[in-house]
Write a structure and sequence with these properties.
The chain is built from 15 helices and 12 strands. Bound molecules: alpha-D-glucopyranose (GLC). The site of alpha-D-glucopyranose has 8 residues, from α2. Alpha-D-glucopyranose binds next to α2.
């Protein structure tokens, strides 16, 4: 089966339609069984992938996300269209009560970007503007344009080792994580309340990259200068999240430290350092099926996803959404050979193993959930033209970038 056929088949079999309290919904399940609800960033990625087969579905997917929005623009991380969370999931899902319609936390706000790529001009859709306004009002805590998150799962990178020094024994996937959820539930998942209670909270690189791309898609002022100003570590040649309270000691380098490569207005010399110093290094990121989610020379890098019986993601295997975002930067900066190598290796793994949640970065073995929708983004890596058009798409006439 070709990768196009495989992808289409998975997206079609994961498509769900129905009605809840008079509201019609239609979305792509991230993976049947394992992830039955609508996850915010999964839906944005699915909408991007759907446009290759059925642009109507791209639009309906994103409209469903928007129809979950509260009047002030808030959209949760997970939306329970079909059934409420179970008793067990309640312990580690960010809801205030079991009957909640969605979680009270966010995922990286990329609906404006997804709309731009898959549906049209997001600036013409008031609900998208309202949602992004909410994100800025509630999460730009210092007025410099950068967003903060209150839990590791808000970044979408759940158990990434970069969060271990920040959340310690309460990090995602560890036995004490439910205590973090319980505490933040008590604080109403309100980031200012969490900060005032001592944190921790995080100004994360990758969340801000996706937020920045959405702002460009909306024709709003770029936050790339603020990101560079605050998070670029010049001596190390990569970006570092900022935690509050600040963390002491080593923070593992993950793909998120390189994610600003996806920003079309990233200063070129910074982009080149990210590629040449890290992505081209066979000891760090240039593995057989790149990019590993964690640099391979980190002590915390692991090819496993289960630790003492606990499932923990983002600790080494390769994820296709990360591959796509970084790859757009390779194309933009003209690293044709490396970009071609990524396409070949990643597409071969997806073709052979099917759409899995993530892949072993050495062998390409499929791991985690099966029939995983956003791995359909592998198709993007076959379309250099679309990647090449992205900067133009995000720089509409009238866009202010300074
Ligand atoms: C995992 C991922 C998260 C994703 C969710 C649904 O929790 O870490 O990013 O949104 O699965 O696929």
């Amino acid at each position: 089966m070709t990768i196009h056929e495989r992808t289409r088949r998975t997206l079609e079999s994961n498509w769900r339609e129905g009605e809840r309290r008079g509201v019609r919904y239609a979305y792509t399940e991230p993976s049947p069984g394992r992830y039955p609800w609508q996850w915010y960033w999964d839906s944005c990625f699915a909408a991007i992938a759907w446009r290759r087969f059925d642009t109507g579905r791209s639009r309906r997917e994103l409209e469903t996300l928007l129809s979950a929005a509260e009047p002030d623009g808030f959209i949760g991380h997970t939306i329970f269209w079909r059934r409420p969370v179970s008793r067990t999931r309640y312990l580690f899902y960010n809801v205030t009560s079991r009957g909640d319609f969605m979680t009270r936390t966010i995922q990286p706000p990329l609906i404006a970007l997804a709309w731009r790529i898959a549906a049209g001009d997001p600036a013409e859709v008031p609900a998208i503007g309202r949602h992004h306004d909410w994100v800025e009002r509630e999460r730009d805590l210092e007025g410099d344009g950068l967003l903060w998150v209150l839990q590791p799962d808000e970044t979408g990178l759940d158990a990434s080792p970069q969060f271990d020094p920040v959340w310690g024994r309460r990090a995602q996937g560890l036995p004490l994580f439910p205590l973090l959820v319980r505490r933040n539930r008590r604080l109403g998942f309100d980031i200012r309340a969490v900060r005032d209670a001592g944190g921790p909270i995080l100004c994360g690189t990758m969340t801000n990259v996706l937020h920045g791309l959405s702002r460009l898609a909306l024709g709003r002022l770029s936050i790339t200068p603020a990101l560079v100003e605050r998070l670029w570590d010049e001596p190390a040649g990569l970006f570092r999240d900022e935690a509050w309270p600040p963390v002491a000691g080593h923070v593992p380098v993950t793909w998120a430290a390189l994610s600003p490569l996806a920003l079309p207005d990233l200063p070129e010399e910074i982009g080149r350092r990210l590629v040449e110093q890290h992505l081209l290094d066979p000891a760090r990121f240039r593995l057989p099926v790149p990019p590993p989610s964690v640099a391979a020379d980190e002590e915390s890098f692991s090819r496993k996803d289960t630790f003492w019986g606990l499932r923990r993601y983002w600790r080494g295997p390769t994820w296709i959404n990360a591959a796509w975002l970084l790859w757009t930067g390779l194309v933009r900066l003209g690293y044709r050979e490396l970009a071609g190598e990524w396409t070949e290796r990643i597409v071969a793994a997806v073709e052979r193993e099917g759409l899995r949640e993530y892949y072993d970065p050495y062998t390409g073995r499929g791991m985690g959930a099966r029939d995983f929708s956003w791995s359909a983004l592998a198709l993007e890596l076959l379309d250099e033209e679309a990647a090449g058009a992205l900067p133009g798409l995000l720089a509409r006439p009238g866009t202010r970038t300074e």
